[in-house]
Specification:
This protein is an alpha/beta fold. Helix content is 60%, strand content 7%. The chain has a 5-stranded parallel β-sheet. Helix 8 packs across helix 11. The longest helix is centred in the middle third of the chain and has 38 residues. The relative contact order is 0.07.
């Protein structure tokens, strides 16, 4: 049991972070100063050009000054938004269409590297100004400007190099804790996690999931989520045969494997011919999401159609869509393998529209999004527009893996 005095003291010290809030509002005021400086420099440049007194060198230097002001203002934005998010309080921008991609996983290491690279950019502009105006710049100033710029580059490289081990250490520390119940989780969420632990695994998973001799709480919670997801089999990204598809975006798949897209409420669309590994990747990404602390639910397009149709027939379609919000990620497999009637396609549209900018979907299909009208009819344009707006679309090209294995076995 924790000492009440120690706990109170800790909370009090933690509350002092709000003393930094006025500092960030002060930086907002500094943003206003730079806006004024930008338009003042721009107006001076326009007057010089109109009056005919602006030389090419003057125009170039004036434009570089404007770029310099904008880059410093960008630096302020990163410090204001990233610093406030990291050191003061979370900013509730989830679902906002303009949310920066890096804000969903910002931390002090990421912020330091971004600030260092921004400073290198600003230093580059200053050094370029010196070279453009080299006739009015002393050799001493040019030398030291170059040395300082190289020092900025070296420090940024060192920060970037050091941030790798730091992030890895942080990830290992987070993995030692339960991702389903972080330190700031509320008591109702803890009860919800305990309820989910009571769910029985599907029969198809009981044989496919070996019992681990020793499991941490995080591993046990992840196993509960994986079993409750309804995957047809356990697939891992490490087991995916990257040599089989003739072409696919490996970097995109590796990035998606971090499961940040679930936190950012983005979608993933996997398209390609049958047997190219779409379902494998969908399940593997779903497993990664479960391990990251998210609830996932997997079903084929036909199974989702039946589920939504039953809910509509019972007059509880809206309640069913709302209940699915408890799952941060839904996986819809095999879209396009079976043509859908207009009413069923409308149900899919309602599912996608309901989760638009609210939660994530992984959808696999056998044809590009531009041809989904062949199976979804009139609902296809509106559905694909919402599905692809915040999505990573990964296309897999190649022959069927299953056919290749069958052919190899026959040839052998």
């Amino acid at each position: 049991m924790q000492n009440p005095t120690t706990t109170t003291l800790g909370y009090a010290l933690f509350a002092t972070r709000w003393l930094q809030a006025p500092l960030y509002f002060g930086l907002v005021a500094a943003q206003g100063v730079y806006v004024y400086k930008f338009f003042k420099e721009l107006w001076t440049l326009i007057l010089m050009c109109v009056s005919g007194h602006a030389t090419e060198t003057y125009v170039m230097l004036a434009v570089l000054k404007l770029v310099d002001v904008v880059m410093i203002a960008n630096l302020l934005i990163m410090v204001i938004v990233g610093g406030y998010e990291t050191f003061v309080s979370r900013i509730g921008l989830q679902g906002h269409r303009d949310q920066p991609e890096w804000l969903s996983h910002v931390n002090s290491n990421v912020l330091k590297v971004k600030l260092a690279t921004a400073i290198v950019g600003i230093s580059s502009v200053h050094l370029l100004q010196m070279f453009v105006d080299v006739h009015h710049t002393s050799h001493h100033a040019l030398l030291w400007g170059t040395v300082i710029h190289m020092a900025f580059i070296a420090s940024a490289a060192i920060l970037a190099y050091m941030s790798g081990p730091m992030v890895a250490h942080t990830d290992r520390a987070h993995a030692d804790r339960s991702p389903a119940a972080p330190a700031h989780v509320s008591r109702p969420q803890e009860h919800e996690r305990e309820d989910r632990q009571q769910e029985k695994p599907g029969p198809e998973f009981s044989a496919a999931t070996p019992a681990l001799p020793r499991q941490t709480d995080a591993d046990a919670d992840a196993e509960v989520r994986i079993r409750a997801a309804g995957f047809p089999a356990r697939k891992l990204l490490e087991d995916f045969d990257e040599q089989h598809p003739r072409g696919f975006d490996r970097e995109a798949v590796a990035r998606l494997g971090k499961a940040d897209f679930v936190t950012a409420r983005r979608n993933v669309v996997l398209v390609g011919p049958p047997g190219t590994g779409k379902t494998h990747l969908a399940v593997a990404l779903g497993v990664r999401a479960c391990q990251a602390g998210h609830r996932v639910l997997f079903a084929t397009a036909a199974e989702w159609a039946a589920r939504l149709a039953d809910a509509r027939a019972a007059g509880r379609l809206d309640a069913e869509l709302t209940a699915l919000d408890d799952h941060a990620l839904l996986i819809v497999d095999e879209v396009g393998y079976t043509p859908l009637d207009t009413a069923t396609a409308g149900l899919f549209f309602q599912l996608v529209a309901h989760r638009y900018e609210r939660a994530s979907l992984i959808v696999t299909g056998d044809r590009p999004l531009g041809r989904w009208d062949e199976v979804l009819g009139p609902s296809a344009p509106a559905l694909t527009d919402r599905l692809a707006h915040h999505a990573d679309v990964v296309r897999l090209d190649g022959d069927s893996y299953r056919t290749r294995r069958a052919t190899s076995a026959w040839a052998g």
